[in-house]
Design brief:
This protein is about 50% helix and about 20% strand. By secondary structure, the chain is α+β, with helices and mostly antiparallel strands. A hairpin with a 6-residue loop joins strand 1 and strand 2.
Length: about 150
């Protein structure tokens, strides 16, 4: 079973059971964003986590095996800039603020990057009288460039 077939099965089971990613995350002891990434085929799971997710969704060993396979990340991107408005906004944010964020990180930490491997990302609702806001918190380990 490939990752696309696995994802289709997971999404169908999730919809059939009326579950949210945060509920599945609670079942497997992981964060909602990571759990969604796993279900969408962008992450791999240890065997125990794969089986917990499959148990929660009444899916079999074939799905659990596919969940444990290392993914080819970013395969969902068929275009350089996506057309989905929500995902596009992240590109827009980086187009406008990316160079400024880079400068601030370099001033604070020096020459290096933020890891996307040793990394967490959380999404929360922030109540606001003018309309609720989306709060996104990214936390990545700083990796200095090596000089030799």
């Amino acid at each position: 079973m490939n990752k696309q077939e696995m994802t289709a099965a997971i999404l169908a089971a999730k919809k059939k059971k009326g579950l949210r990613w945060d509920q599945l995350a609670d079942e497997i002891g992981m964060s909602p964003v990571w759990t969604a990434s796993l279900g969408l085929g962008e992450s791999s799971a240890p065997e125990a986590v794969a089986h917990k997710l499959c148990a929660a969704l009444d899916l079999g060993d074939e799905i659990a095996d596919a969940l444990q396979e290392c993914p080819l990340k970013g395969e969902w991107m068929s275009k350089t800039v996506p057309t989905d408005p929500l995902i596009y906004r992240f590109y827009e944010i980086m187009a406008v603020y990316g160079p400024a964020v880079k400068q601030v990180i370099h001033e604070e930490f020096g020459d290096g990057i933020m890891s996307a491997i040793d990394f967490t990302l959380d999404v929360a609702r922030e109540p606001d009288p003018k309309g609720d806001r989306v709060q996104i918190v990214m936390s990545g380990k700083f990796l200095p460039y090596v000089r030799w």
